[in-house]
């Protein structure tokens, strides 16, 4: 079968929307999904800075949602017509997967970032018959269709706005999962969120839904206005004395902090904003050494990295959609849709901060 897809052919080049071909249907344990919408995530754009480790040319995209068209056997647990949200790939067999921590799968990097599985090679070809790179995050969903392992696909209520659900598979899952899974925030807890982008604002919404007092820190007034709309106390990152200001707003310091910026000065400020035994979680990948200032880890404070919100997607995604249906997780307010053919415009708007979460719609 043939369908349009956005192909990245050079690390410093534009996406090109081309006709691609899929040589065969789903094998055992796979499903073919017609994509209704796919979020554009900064991890997709980070391929440009991956030092060539992510193979090109490739079809990227890892926040897909769509309708199951065909299944590779009954063992998938899905059937044609099911509405699904797609998430990250995992092996299902290693200790991390068996411990219900698939984001810490032993094969996570290989499966999602650097080439996929051996059996996935050359499943996609371009119009000239040349092979495209194996699946990105088990999906490659900047396309009309995606061929995915069934465990990547989470069935959702068909009454939901399917085209908008894709970011629940990564960006929104990461922010909300950090709050609900990693920190297990509850009523009366205090949280400071550094960076009010897609991940940070998802964290704010989840914390508000959980009954926490949340402080949002960002340098863009419009992002702080969004955070305030979703229940956070806004705090400009540009002013001095951030830890002291957080302490005043949280009655002596936050119990939890979530950094989405990978900024060393902000990370040190976040640690100083914590009360004794407080915990800081990092979700952004650090691009350089992180020098910690003297005293930042005193009095029982701790710091750790959080991958994919410590989520089991099949459990967290339905929880988030239920919160949305109850009016308590309004993630759709962060989304602007673009036709797949406008992917380069969507990338520009994402990189410049004009939009929080672009979602690409194939065929529109």
From TrEMBL:
Domain Alcohol dehydrogenase-like N-terminal: 28-156
InterPro entries in the cross-refs: ADH-like_C (IPR013149), ADH-like_N (IPR013154), ADH_Zn_CS (IPR002328), GroES-like_sf (IPR011032), NAD(P)-bd_dom_sf (IPR036291)
Pfam families in the record: ADH_N, ADH_zinc_N
Family per record: Belongs to the zinc-containing alcohol dehydrogenase family.
Residue stretches spanning the membrane: 159-180, 192-217
Name this protein carries in UniProt: NAD(P)-dependent alcohol dehydrogenase
Segments forming domain Alcohol dehydrogenase-like C-terminal: 198-309
Keywords: Membrane, Metal-binding, Oxidoreductase, Transmembrane, Transmembrane helix, Zinc
Cofactor(s) recorded in Swiss-Prot or TrEMBL: Zn(2+)
Organism: Streptomyces hintoniae
Highest taxon above the source species: Bacteria
